[in-house]
Specification:
10 helices
Length: 281
């Protein structure tokens, strides 16, 4: 009996070590990288215009996703638990993820947050090769307000052109439950009610056109009020404009929050769609 107990005590830590060694490697994370510089920046820009870069531990020439957090353009942070889990899980799967902060309303007003998003993309385009990524495989995505920013960068070309880039620099767009009309926070900045629907130059749908980067539009069957309908309308208008690069996908059994948060989970349908979209030839 003593010999059996001794053998068990010796074997147990060896078994534990073997199990731990099969766990997926953690992502390498570079924190608080400034994507804007210069004496002309405000103190708020210096504070907010930073990103975290999550890198696969193995391989070179990998794709990169610039992922914008949600929060209604008034809140949210790159360090949020759900955002961090999404970035870490994708990096473990071989995709680099750049997660920027951006200025928020009401401290900053339209279009400051879109300009910040463009600057974060431009920084990643310029620097991802230094970290092993392929600058020609650079995607943009985000959840909720991040989805809105994604669409505005891909559709209103002047934001990237102001930085010497064109939409062709984007390998693909992945908005998740983004607002496709003029964002309600932009409307509130203008003194317009949250449900006074507007589609002007601050609305992705205003810029519907035939030629865009490939686009995967994800939204939830139990999304927030009118959000699923906005996304379905956007996809229809894009197709009506002759755009053959847009795909809309309704994710079942998801709310506005869970459609984004669950992307961190292997096998989640939104995650599977995102991965297939980013790895398609």
């Amino acid at each position: 009996m003593k010999n059996l107990l001794l053998a068990t005590l010796i074997a147990f830590p060896l078994w534990t070590q073997a199990t731990d060694s099969t766990a997926p490697p953690k992502a390498e994370t570079l924190k608080n990288l400034a994507y804007k510089s210069g004496d002309q920046l405000s103190e708020y820009e210096v504070q907010r215009c930073r990103l975290d870069l999550y890198l696969p531990r193995e391989g070179k020439g990998f794709s990169t996703l610039v992922w914008f957090h949600g929060g209604g353009l008034t809140g949210g942070n790159k360090d949020g638990d759900a955002t961090r889990k999404i970035a870490e899980s994708l990096a473990r799967a071989g995709i680099a993820v750049a997660v920027p902060n951006y200025r928020l309303s009401p401290k900053a007003k339209y279009p400051a947050y879109i300009e910040d998003a463009a600057a974060a993309f431009a920084w990643t385009k310029a620097h991802i090769a230094e970290h092993g990524g392929n600058p020609n495989k650079l995607f943009i995505g985000g959840h909720s307000a991040g989805g809105y920013l994604t669409l505005m960068l891909g559709l209103d070309e002047h934001y990237l052109r102001d930085l010497g880039l064109s939409p062709s620099a984007i390998a693909g767009l992945i908005p998740v439950s983004g607002q496709t009309m003029t964002h309600y926070t932009v409307r509130e900045e203008r003194g317009v009610g949250k449900f006074t629907i507007t589609a002007d130059e601050a609305a992705p749908v205003f810029h519907a056109c035939k030629d865009t980067p490939p686009m995967l539009v994800l939204y939830a069957d139990h999304d927030m009020v009118a959000r699923a309908e906005e996304n379905a309308y956007f996809v229809a208008i894009m197709k009506g404009a002759g755009n053959t690069h847009v795909t809309g996908k309704l994710i079942s059994d998801r709310t506005h929050g869970s459609i984004g948060n669950n992307i961190a989970n292997d096998g989640d349908p939104a995650r599977v769609a995102l991965m297939e979209f980013m790895t398609a030839p």
